[in-house]
Amino acid sequence: MSRNRTRCAYRGRRVFLYMFMGLAAVVLVWRAICLQVLDKQFLQDQVQARHLRVVTLSAHRGMITDRNGEPLAISTPVESVWVNPQQLGGEQQRIPELEQVLSLEHDTVRRLLAHRSDREFAYLRRHINPVLAAQVNDLDIPGVYLRREYRRYYPAGEVASHILGFTNIDDVGQEGLELAYEEWLGGESGAKRVIKDGKRNIIEDVESISRPRPGKDLKLSIDHRIQYLAYRELKKAFQSHKARSASAVVLDAKTGEVLAMVNQPPFNPNNRQKLRSTHIRNRAVTDVFEPGSTMKPFIVATALESGRYQPDTPIGTSPGWFRVGVNTVRDVHDYGQLDVAGVIRKSSNVGISKIALSLPAEDIWTLLSDVGFGVQTFSGFPGEASGLLPHHGGWNAIETATLAFGYGISVTPLQLAQAYAVLAADGIKRSVTFLRDDRVAEERRVMPARVARQLRDMLEQATGPGGTAPAAQIAGYRVAGKTGTVRKSESGGYSDNKYLAVFAGMVPASDPRLVMVVMINEPSNGKYYGGLVAAPVFSTVMSGALRLLAVPPDAVPLLQTRLDSKEEPA
Asked: Catalytic residue positions?
């Protein structure tokens, strides 16, 4: 009996076990059906939710070109290496391999992971070349990823660097026109939702949140050909005269457009590691200096406008010096009796001081203010200086006299160029711009046309035989201009061995198209006069620019006479 009971109990347990296993199988099959058929969408949503990410779509920065469409600044796509510290922390054994490929110092990555251990994103190296990016990708290290970004590149290098400025590593303008027109050039980044796999690779685009708005292109007034000429010649003069710094500006007298602007010493915006703060500022716009004798034409303009003087009005300059109170104004030589035109031609300090002291100070101040001294040109360039023009109410006799030959007033090279452009434009002052614009520039008459033309004739004499700047002459063209040789101000007075060499001029003198100002700061190789140091730069640059712009010669008879004199007699 007991044996039968045992057999029955065993059979019952086996039946129960079979039933339990069968029921479990049914439950598992049902669950699989639910998961794979009935609840499929729910599970897919859960997977997507765990791998759904919002990624930023970088906006392409606008290109900067010269007036002819030549690229001056472009943004090129590059890759940057970033890491997820929480993922990479579990791959300690592969960190040395990563550091070797990226040429990083030992323990650089470990220090980064320790510092950013609570984050999911950290840049490791920005803007690497495509070959290196491919090597990083081939490593296939969990937690190490590549990100597409843009890097600013400047094809002209240091030739146009002071005008353009540069962007930072995030492609945001920091200096120059890159900063001034950041909103125009920068654009706006976009965003989209994507699904990423376990390796953070995008496997599906889900939706677009916002489209990136590319930056707009910017066309400058700069002519890269003239820009290069100015850069080359200014650099040559800067080096040969062992100067401390130098600046040059070329304006289109008809439109007020800046065709070229260069400075020395230079910097290369493509090499961020060697940027020096003393080299990156645009000295032609931000630095001021006393203009010296380049100020004299504007004193004469006031005199001519007053009606009390004519170009042939005699001015006595003997014996080469002139007492103003307890102070003495001196000329380099005793020029004797000069007319007003001769005062400009010989650059007589005595003659211009006598003229200035005979005029109302308010009239001088008004004209200087009208042509642009003491106020910004409003070119839109960041950090532009306004210079200094003291109010006439505080002038005494010696201050009036010294201001007449360019001391006690400060200007930027761009301001001085704009003022000479007034003489070139028959007394019309035009707004200065760095942009190529077909619209008519804002303009205002600030000087009678008659006066401006008379001054051009005088300035043409200054570049001829017997003038201070024959080195500014250009074969086939009439040149009008004025030199300046300025003692530098220092503690306690003016230096006896530090000078500024300046030349401001225009061509062709009969109907000026181009205006150029050249300033060489502290030439120290023996020569320091404006006519010897700055005027030759003007001549070479303008000679090339006139031909590039196909400006017709206005001194053909003079040029033919020179050619005929070189021919062999028949």
From this structure: 293
